[in-house]
Amino acid sequence: MERRVAERLRSALGPLGLEAHAFKVGWYNAVLQPAFHLPYPDDTLAFVVLSTPSMFDKALKPFVNKEQLKIIRDPVDQCVSHHLSRVKEKFPDQRVDVMFDYEMLPSRKPKFLAQTAAHVAGAAYYYQRKDVKLDPWGKKKIFGVCIHPKYGGWFAIRALLLFPDIQVPFLEQPVPVDCVSTEEKRIELLEQFNFHWQDGRYRDIIEVKERYSEEQKAYFATPPAERFRLLGLSQEAQ
C-alpha cells in the first residue's frame, strides 16, 4: 500500500519540483518530547514534502502567472497549498491530512518539527550540536540544520501528508545520508548556519548537484513584503 501511495505522489509532485519521503509517525514521535508528538497511532503512514531548486520554475512561476489575481498571502505557501490540495484529490477513498511548515498550534508551537521529520524519513540529515564531539560553543545557543545529499542546503521542507487510515507496521526506516561526515565540516556547517546564515554559504557545505537560480536567490533574499513586485504582482495582492 505504501508503495502505491508513494508512486502516486511521485508522479504528481515530481514534475513540480517537489519530493515526498515516507515515514511512520512512530519514528517521529520516538525522538521528540510528548508535547511535539503527532496525534496518530505509531504505524500511521506519513510523508514529508520537500521543495527542490526546480520548484521555482516548475511550480511557482506558472502558478503565479495563472493565479495572480487570487494570491493573497505568501506566493510560495499558497502555491504549495494549491498543489497539495490537488494531490489530495488523487486519493478519493482515503483521508489525507496536510500540515504546513508555517502552521502553528494554539500554544504557538509549530504543528510539526520539519527538520526532525526530514531526518526520520531519510530525506535529509539533521545536523545538530550533539553531532559534534568537541563542542566549541560554550553557552551559545546553536540551532541544527538539515543537509540534503543532492541539494545541500538548497531546498526547503514544506509540509506533511498523513494517511490516518493506512497503517504500515512493516515499513523499514531508511537512514539519512551522512554527507557532512567529518567533525571539522560539521563545526563549519553549524557555525555558518548560526552566525552567517544570510550569506548562504552553509548551503554549499557539500558538492551540490543543483542549487537555486540567481533569480530564485534574489527572490528569497528579498523581504517578504517586496517579493510580490519581483513576481510581477501588485502590492494590492498582498
Describe the structure.
- With 238 residues, the protein is α+β, with helices and mostly antiparallel strands.
- It has helices at 2-13, 25-30, 55-67, 75-88, 114-120, 183-195, 214-221, 224-230, and strands spanning 18-24, 44-51, 97-100, 125-127, 145-147, 156-167.
- The strands form 2 sheets. Strands 1-2-6-3 form a 4-stranded antiparallel β-sheet, with helices on both faces. The protein has a two-stranded antiparallel ribbon with strand order 4-5.
- The model has no long low-confidence stretch (mean pLDDT 93).
Largest beta-sheet details:
4 strands, antiparallel
Mean pLDDT: 93
The DSSP helix count reads: 8
Outline type:
globular
Strand order, biggest sheet? Answer: 1-2-6-3
The helix/strand order is HEHEHHEHEEEHHH
Distance between the termini: 41 Å
Task: Summarize the entry for a quick read.
The chain is of the alpha+beta class and 238 residues long. The chain has helices at 2-13, 25-30, 55-67, 75-88, 114-120, 183-195, 214-221, 224-230; strands at residues 18-24, 44-51, 97-100, 125-127, 145-147, 156-167.
